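Summary of Year 1 activities. Much of the first year was spent building the evaluation harness for sequence design. The harness presents a backbone, in tokenized form, and records the residue chosen at every position. We chose the following record to illustrate the format because it has been used consistently in internal testing since the harness was completed.
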């Protein structure tokens, strides 16, 4: 009987050591994984920051190609809140509400596509839009669900 207790003590001590080794290995792997994630995020952020001049150039082309747009001011933050301020010409006031919403939505979607194509955002990230007249009067903005809400 005493031999069984000694054997079981040895087995127990062995299992405790194995358990401790597994805990140490899991902590090491956790630390290595955190480090690699941080390095990958840093690298992606650097790539995204390098793409800002290309993004700005492509947005300038949108402004140049569309006579209804006076200016687009960008507020981009990698892995943060991204939105644009769209300044429209007076032709905005001659459009129907549906045309206004479609126009704002199309501009926002085009900017979002540029940001995604250049690796600045992920496909499911949100890009907000605020529409202003040339004089700075607020005309529209997007709501929580992404729909464009016109101001009165």
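For this record, the design step produced the sequence shown next.
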């Amino acid at each position: 009987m005493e031999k069984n207790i000694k054997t079981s003590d040895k087995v127990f001590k062995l299992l405790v050591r194995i358990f401790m080794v597994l805990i140490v290995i899991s902590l090491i792997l956790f630390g290595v994984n955190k480090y690699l994630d941080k390095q990958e995020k840093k690298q992606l952020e650097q790539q995204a920051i390098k793409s800002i001049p290309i993004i700005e150039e492509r947005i300038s082309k949108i402004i140049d190609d569309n006579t209804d747009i006076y200016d687009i001011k960008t507020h981009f933050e990698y892995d943060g809140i991204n939105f644009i301020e769209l300044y429209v010409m007076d032709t905005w006031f001659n459009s129907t509400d549906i045309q206004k919403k479609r126009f704002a939505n199309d501009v926002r979607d085009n900017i979002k596509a540029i940001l995604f194509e250049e690796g600045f955002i992920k496909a499911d990230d949100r890009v907000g839009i605020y529409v202003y007249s040339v004089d700075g009067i607020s005309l529209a903005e997007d709501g929580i669900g992404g729909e464009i809400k016109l101001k009165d």
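The beta strands are 69-75, 83-88, 128-133, 138-142, 148-150. Quantitative recovery figures across the full test set are reported in Table 2.
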